[in-house]
Amino acid sequence: MIDEHEYGYFTEADSADVVVARNRNAKDERLKQVMEVITRKLHEAVKEIEPTQEEWFAAIMFLTQTGQICNDWRQEYILLSDVLGVSMLVDAINNRKPSGASESTVLGPFHVADAPELPMGSNICLDQKGEPMFVHGRILDTESKPIAGAKIDVWQANDEGFYDVQQQGIQPEFNLRGVFRTDADGRYWFRGVKPKYYPIPDDGPVGKLLGALGRHPYRPAHLHYIVEAEGFDPLTTHIFDPDDPYINSDAVFGVKESLLAEFRKVEDAEAAAKVGIEAPFYDVEFDFVLSRKKG
Amino acid sequence: MIDEHEYGYFTEADSADVVVARNRNAKDERLKQVMEVITRKLHEAVKEIEPTQEEWFAAIMFLTQTGQICNDWRQEYILLSDVLGVSMLVDAINNRKPSGASESTVLGPFHVADAPELPMGSNICLDQKGEPMFVHGRILDTESKPIAGAKIDVWQANDEGFYDVQQQGIQPEFNLRGVFRTDADGRYWFRGVKPKYYPIPDDGPVGKLLGALGRHPYRPAHLHYIVEAEGFDPLTTHIFDPDDPYINSDAVFGVKESLLAEFRKVEDAEAAAKVGIEAPFYDVEFDFVLSRKKG
């Protein structure tokens, strides 16, 4: 005979306590703790909202449809987490950096694991579309000393806002992706194309929600980086174009002040020739600072 | 040019404010309010839990799978709402009753709209399986005056814990369902079978979660009622068997103290014959009190 009577039956006033008490036999302490917080916050939200039965059912159907649109290449729940700022919050919590280290931002869904390692200076834009861009900078430790042998994995959307994996058969394979390794001076440089803002997938439940909330689905133009070096915490981040029309309203809240780069337009043909590009081009200089692994 | 710079970029400290500020152009004030509460409580929960990236992804996958197992006859998100006490909380909020009126509980997934209207006293158990039960009582207003012409829609699981709709081809159609109407004295009576506890569907993500939390999936034995009468608030509720082994641990928190009935075993053959049943049988007497519609 199971007796949980010490907690009494469900009442509006005690609702969360009654539900939480049921989990007292959970073997996994972490799961128990997580479900206690979720239950309490969920009940607080319901009590504050006081949904009608119809509103409750609309929420049930939204959650159901958000799950049902997911497939091997589409993850609508990650999108929901993104547009509610939850993905960025989880990223922030897991990447608290010591003062001076570069800040992280979300990985996003378009990273591929097997991009080719390229000689420094390569042009990752394989189809020559768009406005040329020269990207360069240094990988440093928090004492501003260069990190040699750092691995830099970069990827970006093209001049129309699409990644290669979204346009298979249209863009060349591994277009606008590359892996580079720094020399003794910690420098990196490569050529690409000025990226453009693009919408997150907005034809599903999350897109409809954004629309109903008066929000647009765009992410401002950015370049993705994963920077790794032996003995340092890996850094997953972006750099952003501060002149992008959506720089202050990224649909997924990925922008941080410290990740704004300068996309400097260079008209000088000689400067362009020096880096193997035709003028005009965009010069983007950005240094990354890695934090040393603890312990 | 969209400028939301007044709220600044996303930071861990300001996370919910930054997200909520984005909804300021929402046309639907209610949606805006609901999403503000949800966003704030969600961020509070994440900050309290501090999930790892792996835990966050496990949550994403749980939500996805909960949506994907839903189909025309299975609603796993309602089940999740049920086992977290949210369904009962929404029911409580929407059915606050004046003192003296009968309390409501969840509708559940097994009500059918077109059950037959039967003469008072009918036996709703069409296959004669299980221990006979005689159910009777009165429909009253809050001044204890009988309500004539009240419609009573009842349904129940059989002696093995299954509803007819779960056992099509095994149980007769409309087995253990009926609609009755009270006479001038507000009385109702019908014959059925002693119900048994049964599990909610536990082979999906919600069942796995219950298991991980050390919780069983059972609902204690009960009879469902919807009582309606002109000029009164409709009442959707259950009555429960207080001797059921799960009476203090209903998986969906539906039990309320005021909804415990007495299932009195009667051995007397004469008493049984009087109500058209063979002894032994269970006598269940329960009155319902409806609240008068406001306005």
From TrEMBL, chains A, B:
Domain Intradiol ring-cleavage dioxygenases: residue ranges: 135-163
Record has Oxidoreductase as a keyword: yes
UniProtKB keywords: Dioxygenase, Iron, Metal-binding, Oxidoreductase
CDD domains (UniProt xref): 1_2-HQD
Entry EC no(s): 1.13.11.37
Cofactor entry: Fe(3+)
Domain of life where this protein originates: Bacteria
Gene Ontology molecular function: any one: 4-hydroxycatechol 1,2-dioxygenase activity
Membrane-crossing segments per the record: none
Keyword Nucleotidyltransferase: no
Pfam families (UniProt xref): Dioxygenase_C, Dioxygenase_N
Record-linked InterPro entries: 1_2-HQD/HQD, Catechol_dOase_N, Intradiol_dOase_C, Intradiol_dOase_core, Intradiol_RC_Dioxygenase
Protein family per UniProt: Belongs to the intradiol ring-cleavage dioxygenase family.
Protein name: Hydroxyquinol 1,2-dioxygenase
Organism: Kaistia defluvii
